[in-house]
Amino acid sequence: MAVNGVLVSEMGMRVDPRTAVIHVDGARINVRDDLVYLALNKPRGVLSAMSDDRGRPTVGDLVADRSERLFHVGRLDGDTEGLLLLTNDGELAHRLMHPSFGIAKTYLATVPAPVHKEVARRLLAGVELEDGPVQVDAFRIVQTHGERAIVEVVLHEGRNHIVRRLLAEVGHPVQRLVRTAVGPVRLGGQRVGTLRELSREELSELHRLVDKPL
After folding, report:
1. CA–CA separation, 47 and 131 (whole Å)
2. Which is the most buried residue in 116, 123, 128, 184, by most CB within 10 A?
3. For the packed helices 90-97 and 200-210, what is the interaxial angle rounded to 10 degrees?
4. Residue positions annotated with a catalytic role
């Protein structure tokens, strides 16, 4: 075990859980019971906001019964479904959103078919958008059925509507978009509109990805 970067060999060492950074077998563990880390499967039509002065449905409505003051890590536009992280850990949230860490995000997009191999080559090589170039980390065709195809896009960009703009630029405007993963955290079979706590392994891996100086 290591506390604040120092290897500990004696049993019974006392630490301040508010400030101590503890690693066990190289994995950071959370020792504060006041910090909450949640995964939400955001429904379509719900805003990534904690409130809305126009009365539209928000993420805040889905966690209104919780006592913690939660906020969302990044955002999904109203028409996009899927994984959104919620927490009251401001430091971790800031790091996860900071572009220098380049946390990969995975999406499934329904687009017009067919999707030719040239599309994948263009996306992997980089596409010029009005606000600069963007290059995906990975791209694959998941399935094709009639006039529709489902494709998987992995990228670490965080610009607004980046997946929709990117696929539209290569001739495949998005009909439905679902975020399925943020770094090591995956949506899996989680039902739409539900919350779950992140596992110890997921939280440890998130910390590992951002445990370096900004």
Report:
1. 24
2. 123
3. 60
4. 77
